[in-house]
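Sat 14:20. Reprocessing the chain from the morning session after the first attempt stalled halfway. Input below, unchanged.
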Amino acid sequence: MTRPAHSALPASWCSLLLLTAGAWSCSGHHSTTAPLGAGVVHFSADACQLELGTLIESPSASFTPWYGREAWKQEAPDLLGDLRPAFVCDLPALFSYPIAANATPQRLSTAVRRIRPSSEETMRAEVFWRQDGKLQSLIAVEILGSDDNWHELQVDLPVEAGELVFAHRFAVSGLAEQSGLPVAWSQPVLAPLAKPQQPDVILLTIDTLRADAIPYAPYLEELMNSGKRWQAAYSPSNWTLPSYASLMTGLSPQEHGCGRGPFTPEPTGAVENRNFRALGVAPTVAEAMRDAGYATAMFYQNPLLESWTGLQRGFDRYLRTADRAPAHHQEACRWWQANSHRARFLTLHYMAPHLPYLPPASARGGLGVNPLDALHPESLFERDHSPMERQAFFDLPAASRAQVALWYQAEVAAMDAELRSLITTLRASSPDCLILIHADHGEELWDAGSFEHGHSFDDSVIHVPLAMVREGFLHAESITQPVAAHHLGTLMLEELGIPNRLPASSLGDAKQADRRIRSTFPLYRCAYGGRELQADGSWRVLAFNFEGSTGNPGIIQPETAARMAALGYTGERND
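Finished this time. Tokens:
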């Protein structure tokens, strides 16, 4: 929604905030006993008083030329994209927000960025405290014209009633009133400095991790064995998008509609438009956590989780990193520390051990040459092929198959070592945090005669690791009863007592929970359409009928599309 500037803005404010250099260099005010209201407050555009320019509530993202490309290559930077709920404003602009007096400390967190880099002058963004007609500068940043990254702004507030004033303009006083490219402020948040009683939560979701690959991840196995571990958990699909949407909504792929559209009756052999479908209006786990006052962030590495899917809803930050296990580490630790005054919900998605299998060079001793290198699998995956064509394409000798399995296992081990380092660091400041362990699907290594995932519902593809750990609160327990893996997110909400509009979890005690175990909606053509577990423990095979997911086509934000065009991306992009 675009809001017009307030027509009664006194000229003195424009002069003071936009023209007078001295106003931009006022001494800051930092209070260690700053007040907080009833709880965490996320600003809305409607609650702000616009005093100059325009104000639109819209997501805003910074990203690199590697965003959406072959980000597994070593030269790609660790951080590829950073999407946040935001207020988008003209340059210059000024808006304010009233703050009531409080008896307890509170902290403001936001960030600012220029929408597109350019050769324009340096911009200055600043947050003021306005009280009784006087201004104090709380925090400021200057941003070069060529810089479109987010710049963090975090400050403790005075205890008295007053107003927060957000302003930005060109840094040179003589250009203060000149217009420039738009600017985004990440949605400002006020939060108490006294950390609430809710535990921190870390959701680990690992792409392409088979249930029987856990022995190659000794840290992960130790972690899972220390809590509640489901030994017979099954994914709701054989590929990332519908499985992850199910985790975030507690719904089956049939219900949330996120996945791939219908297939043509026969394989064409041509380059394939997979017609991916986005999540509809279903509420998400992240939205429930955010509404409960949690700081929420997700680090992901698979392009099938980008924001066009709708899966970013509820996350204060939605960050894509390079497809390397260590890429999460520094930025995740920085976010964790910056939000140490709040309950934190951190989701870490790891692409490894997804293709291409690329363990670090130090872990490749004795592996030899990867037989897949000579096949160039991408030449098959990009085309509309049948299960028989896939099986023929990957018809390798037994020794070569065993060698490929070693590369897969080596990447599992490398991912596990990085997990040990990161989780140990995070738990040092939050020893009683709740940790959830999940995989979206597994990987066939010729278990049923073929290779990879998305094409079959063999156990190697849909039987996945699943666990919930909280030191000192959950005792070690191994559950052998078959369960639906995607109910882990809703179980978390129930365990934490967080109000939500999601379905009851079948992993808990709710009698009304849907306890069906079904895996459906393949990514590629499949000899059958899925599997469903029967009451007697047998599996019923579901027919493959060419139907697809029913969600809406994914939509790229105009700002993102424009930035991608500037980076040289061409043509339609929905993957």
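The first strand starts at residue 2 and ends at 3.
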